[in-house]
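Entry 14. Two folds queued back to back today. First construct below, sequence then structure tokens.
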Amino acid sequence: MTFPTWFSFFIACWLISLSPGAGAIASMSSGLAHGFRRGYWNAIGLQLALILQVGIVAAGIGAVLAASELAFSLIKWFGVAYLLYLGWKQWSAPVAAPLLAAESGSTSARKLLLRGFVVNASNPKAIVFILAVLPQFIAPAQPLLPQYVLMTATMVLVDLVVMAAYTGLAARVLRLLRSPRQQRLLNRTFGSLFAAAAALLATVRHAGH
């Protein structure tokens, strides 16, 4: 892969990561509820799912999943249900305790990592998108594995930076909130955003339609 090709891919990664989506909403929600240090485990979970998705595409399984309407629908509707569940949890989150105490809450790093993983892994559009975008930057005459490793590392590093910004922004907002009314408003705002992300995912159609 030449440097101009990699740099074009690098710019594309920034544009993709900065676009608001379920991952960004999950990152901000985690930063709001748990602070930056604990909430950032959600972003790491997002990246583990991204690595898995690239691996699926690189192995050729992505083409099979993209061609299967049943597999596409099963993953999609699981993702919709999970986003709605996260929305309900956020909407009904308790606000009685001071919000600053949330950082020492019971939600473990493992649970946040798993949540981020499921949010990204349950989006079939991501596999289809990777399947459509990555080959455009691949040089078929060169060894494929180093190119996939380089592109995966680029995507992950860029997304980690962007999700750190989303998580950190929400964590800073967290420290400005004191009243239960403000906490409830933010919880319901993020709950609504999760529901909106679920509604958008529900509108995604298989390429065969």
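Second construct, same run, same settings:
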Amino acid sequence: MAMSSLDRQHIIAGPNFNRWLVPPAALAIHLCIGMAYGFSVFWLPMSMQLDYPDMTACRDIGFFNALTTTNCNWSVSQVTHIFETFIAMLGISAAIWGAWLEHAGPRKAGFIAALCWGGGLMIGGIGVFMHQLWLVYLGCGVLGGVGQGLGYISPVSTLIKWFPDRRGMATGFAIMGYGGGAMIGAPLAVALMTHFEADGTLGVATTLIIMGGLYFLVMSAGAFGFRVPPTNWQPAGWTPPDNAAENKKITSRHVHLDRAWKTPQFWLIWAVLCLNVTAGIAVISMASPMFQEVFGARLLGLAGDASPSAEQIAMIAAAAGGLVGLISLFNSIGRLFWASLSDKLGRTNTYSVFFILGILLYCSLPTLGHMGLAGLFVIAICIILTLYGGGFATVPAYLADIFGTQMVGAIHGRLLTAWSVAGIAGPLLIAAVREAQLKSGMAVNLVYDRTLYMMAGLLLIGLICNLMVRPVKEDVTMSDDELAIERAQSHEDNIASHAISAARGSFGLLGVIAWLAVGIPFLIGLTIALQKATALFTG
């Protein structure tokens, strides 16, 4: 009986439900899995878990030996691959199980995501405790990555169906949580590691176990808060847009996943997301060192060729740390802002703004660096990060416009393989070009110029792909019979009669509690991020 409550047919909204209870449920899940962006707080402590390793035996230990050693500390480079693993698994799991999610419903998918992400962190904590790196990879990387993928896409289709009048805003709310999850999770992880410090070693294992348990509870609460609307449900007083010229890309029909991913529209939007993310994630991966190397001593008012003292170097690093905090903030805010604006501008126009503005900003960064204009450099980086986050939040609504809403969650899951590719390509590209230019003897403050111009070139290609997107042909869409079969598999075939009366309830006390439950932690994380960011202006 308990497990049956997870099934899609048992979570159809009744007359007293209010659709504004769905976004906080989605935020509860995304704020937890969004800790992915804050996982770097674990890398250095993970590399110093053993007090007295055998330095002779551990010298130049390879990656595969590091997976099972109990006598040698792991290197930072060996543990950072955990991030690449769960980002890759995010895209893979979303692509594999996206169609299943449409039939199973968001509650079951969200609960399984809670088990995988929360349980994966707990297994990873046990791996740190036992000093078995392979177990950390299995828990945090593989199992956690599956939780990331299912948790990321589980609210998307549901939100789009609840908010046909505000598709961008609805998905922006949820995906904003993924961008802001690190603002909450990273300070919490640092505080817990410090609290459980023993004999000079930070409590990484205990922290991962506690956070895994906490995330499981919060994500489960979010999953059980999901309801789905009956077939053909519409908000009171709203009518679907007609196919006027400005709405010609918004289809009134639906495309099956099996056909959608074979269309040129899918691959053009795939390229749009991949190129936007490649450019943005390259900046995220190198933001702190880039800021320090481009400006260096000039951040403290010294001459560019001055040699700062140890204390001044620490002040420069603190300023760079403030930039990282701002990146998380603007990444999160951009997701809601741009996705909501896309409801007014249209998805194609919004992505055109992303690419044109991004090209101008990337091309301006080298000049701002050469001129020593650190403040304008930071502003440009922050705007770039809003475009990065906005690209993630706007793409589900873009897919719904082009392919319809019936299988948008599954199509979105398949599209997220673009993130997996970009998550590897962006950091590799900027790091490789930087290293090559350093070896050629280029000054350290100039090594990012060529990469930034390359990112602008990628955005130009993305702009062209975006402008090539056209409505799908009629013969690609599902027939009425095919749609009926698909809805029967999703247990929607016998509930259309409730569409008129469903979800007309008031917001009420429950709504206030739900929004406060996700809003208060977000505001706390926001406050901490702003406090850290002050180092940019007071350091």
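Quick look at the second one. Residues 248-495 form a domain with the Growth Hormone; Chain: A; fold (CATH 1.20.1250.20). The chain has two domains: 17-234+502-532, 248-495.
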